[in-house]
Specification:
alpha/beta, Arc Repressor Mutant, subunit A, 2 domains, seven-stranded mixed sheet, 14 helices
Amino acid sequence: MHDLTLSPSTDPADIYRLRDALYASDLFIAALTKLDFFTWIGRRPSTVDGICAHFGFHARPVLAMTTLFIAQGHLTRDEKGVLHLTGAAREHLSKDSPWCVEPYFPRMKDRPIARDYLEILRTGHPARFASRDHEVDWHNAMKTEAFAEEFTAMMDSRGVLLGQAVAKAADLTGHRRLLDIAGGSGIYACALCAQWPELTATVFEKPPVDRIAARAIDRRGCGDRVDTLAGDMLAQPLPAGYDVHLFSNVLHDWDIPVVKQLLAASASALPLGGLLILHDAWLNEDLTGPLHMAEYSVLLVHVTQGRCYGLTEMRAFLEEAGFHRIQHHAIAGGRGVITAEKQ
């Protein structure tokens, strides 16, 4: 059985990025070849709201798109939130320039993911998972046993490394019971318990993932300290009796209203002094990068109802929900852990 307290000697951030950045080129292609976005914004610098109003787009995907283009060096954002072309983008991405490279890129008809992004921008809704003809969007696909098994295994493979990184970043001294909310296979709960011998944990998941998690926990030999509880974090209060809550790679699946709902539910269920752990892929304070996370945010827009959030955004959400002593810790894979206490 693998020791969940062991760390590899190398950081796989660059390998993760090969997967996390898969869809970024498709959104760029859609913006360049279908929307002629760079020519438009070169002539008419605009805010995210102005872009949405002109094109009839939703804010969530536009924010992810423009953050990507800032991180790639194509846009800048001024102190009023107005987006401008950089010099390189003005010369090479705008049709007002004789050096525009738009003809060099593939057509939309050859890129199903790029076509998806036009619909996502217009509707605000995620696409079919991986653009599979036979599949629904991720949120609904997770209701089926076969897809839930596939997706949970995908996330579990990443969690074997990131779980122990989370466990070492969060100080759980004096804490005893952890609720791993939407905890997937339970890998993070198992890793935290392996690192903190006094801790027990419950993985709170919707069916059928709760059953998948129970089997995975037993295979890891962690069933004596980690159990499962079936429930829906969006449809019922979080269970009481836990002094630590964990959201690992959960908040990025949801838009701002649901993120605030989940943080408020956590604050309601935790005792005073209870600890909240948020493990995720975070954008920086001013939503300009890093590039790896901006690329990953674009993938999330395609697959989920969410995106990557910035550290400043999340701090404001946490304070609004009643948390304080908010700290951020960078960990492996370009990810990070935010800890906060219920006030």
